[in-house]
TrEMBL record:
GO CC, alphabetical: extracellular region
Matches recorded under SMART domains: LCCL, SCP
Name the UniProt record assigns to this protein: Cysteine-rich secretory protein LCCL domain-containing 2-like
UniProt keyword terms in alphabetical order: Disulfide bond, Repeat, Secreted, Signal
Ranges of biased composition (kind: Polar residues): 282-291
Cellular compartment(s): Secreted
Domain annotation LCCL: ranges: 297-392, 394-486
């Protein structure tokens, strides 16, 4: 009798473990469904299957998924049991919920019991989601794979850098589903610094990885130790059993609308049977106040804003300067290299990056410059400082992704757009990174430079473009011109614009 009780308890323990951690467990699905319900409070069961609202573009999802599988298939040493990864809509829903909280920490806690999670954030110049996925994988340079003979029975943890857990989760062999979301946070606390218009990427994984004492995968000939459920299938060094083909439809690209704040959760935290690798906590609790989603990727600043005030321990990227800074009082120290107490915008005018109409400026910080030399350039007089100090340089914004919505959105007869410089070869940029909507008159979310190429006002070698911001249009018609296929759209939000050649 005692033996029967022990066996019963053993099966009960196995059942509880499955309900907590197996990828298709009822507990996990119920948690996922709750986040989905909170994200779609107005949907009914009758119409829910007809409408799929997204917080990430289809092209970004495909890029994230393809890069995950590419990197997983190229691990070294080779993996014998690495599973092919597929997109999971419920993981995407839970990632959307957390991204919209704008909290730079892992969460929510009750869901972390059953999923893995990688986070990334940036502001300033454009970064595709794949940029961050690659950065997670690049932690491999600090990671040493534990071979079987080193695991007795637990494998040693060998990470020589600040963190390797993004990499290990990405290449965890049994993690075969991923879902991600991208959200623009108007104000986000990142390690104690407030970042405005921060672009927040959240990727959720199932089954979760990063179990302490385990290797992320088994070393051996690719696909030689795949689970039986794959039936011997192998694709690009990954255990593969095929997946239903997914086609994009118009309703798949509706961006998730801001929701009302949800009530605090009451789900109790369950004990975890295996400890997960520790993650670095945030230093402060960032604000989770919800505001309207914005597409701006540059920091809007005043003419007097000093570099010291905007680049204090945070990444220095891109700033949007207003017009008429020539007539403001912000001081500038130096030439070419500017002291961090200098006005960013007036230093940019001094160097010749922008004129008195304002515009975008890229900034790079330089530490411990020995001295600063005065000069009068472009109507701005700078001062000398003959002692060392932190410095910065300014450079012209030269990318193919800048949009009118970022730099001069239409505002009833008061919009003034700065002259934009387009680099060479924007024609080769993919349309999902630098889209063009319309013909002659373009949607303000279009790439300025690729719209200029489409309109024929610049050539593939690049050049300057003048802009006229206009009110929104009911519809845009796509055409193929000068090697660029533009898109057709109706009922779009935002304004529009025209492009003009700069006559020397």
């Amino acid at each position: 009798m005692h033996r029967l009780v022990s066996i019963a308890l053993l099966f009960l323990g196995a059942s509880l473990a499955a309900s907590l951690f197996l990828p298709d467990s009822l507990e996990l699905r119920q948690l996922m469904q709750r986040y989905q319900d909170e994200l779609e409070p107005n949907d009914t069961k009758a119409d829910a299957p007809l409408r799929t609202r997204r917080a990430i573009r289809w092209s970004d999802r495909e890029e994230i998924l393809q890069l995950h599988n590419k990197l997983r298939g190229e691990v070294y040493p080779t993996a014998s049991n690495m599973e092919y990864m597929v997109w999971d809509d419920e993981l995407e829903k839970s990632a959307t919920y957390w991204a919209e909280q704008c909290q730079w920490e892992h969460g929510p806690k009750d869901l972390l019991m059953s999923i893995g999670q990688n986070l990334a954030v940036h502001w300033g110049r454009y970064r595709s989601p794949a940029y961050h996925v690659q950065a997670w994988y690049d932690e491999v340079k600090d990671y040493t794979y534990p071979y079987p003979h080193e695991c007795n029975p637990w494998c040693p943890e060998r990470c020589s850098g600040p963190m390797c857990t993004h990499y290990t989760q990405l290449v965890w062999a049994t993690t075969n589903r991923v879902g991600c979301a991208v959200h623009t946070c108007p104000r986000m606390n990142v390690w104690g610094e407030i970042w405005e218009n921060a672009i927040y990427l959240v990727c959720n994984y199932s089954p979760k990885g990063n179990w302490i004492g385990e290797a992320p995968y088994q070393h051996g000939r690719p696909c030689s130790q795949c689970p039986p459920s794959y039936g011997g299938g192998c694709r690009d060094n990954l255990c593969y059993k095929g997946e239903p083909e997914r086609h994009e439809s118009p309703d798949m690209n509706e961006v998730e609308k801001p929701q009302e704040p949800v009530q605090p959760r009451t789900t109790p935290t369950k004990p975890q049977s295996k400890p997960s690798l520790p993650q670095k906590p945030a230093n402060a609790n960032p604000s989770s106040t919800k505001t309207t989603r914005t597409t701006y990727l540059a920091q809007n600043i005043k003419c007097e804003t000093k570099m010291r005030d905007k680049c204090k321990g945070a990444a220095c990227n891109r700033y949007n300067c207003p017009g008429n800074c020539l007539n403001k009082k912000g001081k500038v120290w130096g030439t070419l290299y500017y002291d961090v107490q200098s006005s960013i915008c007036r230093a940019a005018i001094h160097y010749g990056i922008i004129d008195n109409n304002g515009g975008l400026v890229d900034v790079t910080r330089k530490d411990n410059f020995p001295f600063f030399v005065k000069a009068t350039k472009n109507g701005v007089e700078s001062f000398s400082k003959y002692k060392p100090g932190n410095a910065f340089t300014v450079s012209r914004v030269e990318d193919c992704y800048t949009t009118v919505a970022e730099i001069c959105p239409f505002k009833a007869s008061t919009s003034h757009c700065p002259r934009v410089f387009c680099p060479a070869n924007c024609i080769n940029e993919p349309s999902y990174w630098a889209p063009v909507v319309g013909s002659n008159i373009y949607g303000d979310g279009s790439s300025i430079c690729r719209a200029a190429l489409h309109a024929g006002v610049i050539k593939a070698s690049g050049g300057y473009v003048d802009l006229l911001a206009l009110d929104k249009r009911k519809s845009y018609t796509g055409t193929l011109k000068n090697g660029i296929q533009s898109e057709s759209k109706t009922n779009t939000e935002g304004g529009s614009f025209r492009v003009f050649a700069v006559r020397e």
